[in-house]
Amino acid sequence: MSLAANAVVALIALLHVYILVLEMFLWDKPAGRRAFGLTQEMATATKTLAANQGLYNGFLAAGLFWGLWLGGAGQAVQVFFLLCVLVAGVFGAATASRKILFIQALPAAIGLTLVLLA
């Protein structure tokens, strides 16, 4: 595995840990509301749903970290979880916010390309 591929996969995993924190713990706090453009009322009403989303982002991060931990044997694991991130990013861009395409899907596509070329 190349250093560049591992670095990008690690950054994507860290991004998903950050998203987990925003969605699970900060959703109705100023940082979470600002990140997702929510009013206090909307954040309060959707807090449980956001925590569920955050948990799934944590699973994506865990899978990517697992693939890194496995070293060269983890390439298939990384490919699977990067594909999951890519699909989630495309779906999120289509259904929630176009910026998700650039925040989540594009990095996953770059990471996937680097992992497959490594």
Low-confidence runs (pLDDT<50, min 5 residues)? none
**Largest beta-sheet details:** none
- Average of the residue pLDDT scores: 96
Enumerate how many helices there are, as a single number: 5
The shape is: elongated
Tell me the number of structural domains: 1
Q: Taking Cα atoms only, what radius of gyration do you get, to the nearest Å?
A: 15 Å
Let me know the number of strands.
Answer: 0
- Helix content bin: over 70%
Structural class, from secondary structure content?
A: mainly alpha
- Secondary-structure element string: HHHHH
Strand content: under 5%
Distance N to C terminus: 5 Å
Description:
It is a single chain. The chain has 118 residues and is an all-alpha fold. It has one domain (3-117). It has five helices and no strands. The protein has helices at residues 3-24, 30-36, 40-69, 75-95, 99-117. The radius of gyration is 15 Å and the shape is elongated. The protein starts with a helix and ends with a helix. The model has no long low-confidence stretch (mean pLDDT 96).
